[in-house]
Amino acid sequence: MRKPVFRFLKVFLLGQQQQAAMVMYEMTDMQYQAVYNCLSFALASMMATTMFLWFRSFGVQDKYRSAVLISGLVTFIAAYHYIRIFNSWVEAYHYPSFQVGKDGAMDIGAPTLTGVPFNDAYRYMDWLLTVPLLLIEILLVMKLDPATYSSKALTLGVGSALMIVSGYYGELTVSGDLGPRWACWFLSMAFFLYIVYELLVGLSAATESESDPEIRSKIQLAQIVTVLSWCTYPVVYLFPMMGITAANAVVGIQIGYCASDIISKCGVGIMIYQITYAKSNKEGLLD
After folding, report:
1. Range of the domain at 66
2. Is 128 within the bounds of a domain?
3. Number of structural domains the chain divides into
4. Fewest Cβ atoms nearer than 10 Å: which of 34, 168, 188, 197?
5. Reported pTM
6. Whole-number pLDDT of residue 169
7. d(C-alpha 208, C-alpha 226), whole Å
8. Where are the strands (E) in the chain, listed by range?
9. What is the pLDDT at residue 22?
């Protein structure tokens, strides 16, 4: 029984030689520019949100500052990885020299592959760090006793890490035999559903314990937006299984993940700040 388990772990962690990196595909100019611009927009969003959250962390009470600082840390980590993803995308393709016509116009053709592989593993390294922190920042704005907070932070943190790790191997395959991608999708979804259950059901008592209806509604909205934004990830993961393959799959996956990251990191981070600001104002009036 042990040998099959160890064999699976060896394949999972090391990968087969032919699947050690994402297969590269030729791109049209429009496809390349679409990913280029989306990565640039996501990077700018992460950087701007980081600055906003860290500067505004001084506008909330000390006991809520950690939640805002962690929200900014999430977007800071994401910004760093988006720089690496963006640079890797640029290095993977090259535009050859084109001739200028007699009218002074130059028709831009498609970029060519440089032979340098596009490293999308940066995105999973980012998620491995930021997804547990995203859950912790939500826990920090809720009414939880220290024991419950520690327990929820541990279980949600471990669950989210397993969700990310279990999905990585399948991400390497976007065409051909999609069996490994399906297996990783189902395994990752099991952890995903557990996290969704904890956010919406397991923490419902803590949410309802908020006496202020405005604050309670803000926390509920942050939980719902987190779940809805996370629901886009497994859908994007399914693109190759929907018949979207090769270059189209790569473009769709990159654009889809960028949009999901902006919502789940920037959007939810700003919501966390709004919750802490509302709580600070309410408690400041009561002091």
Report:
1. 27-92+118-169+183-278
2. yes
3. 1
4. 197
5. 0.87
6. 86
7. 18
8. 93-94, 112-113
9. 57
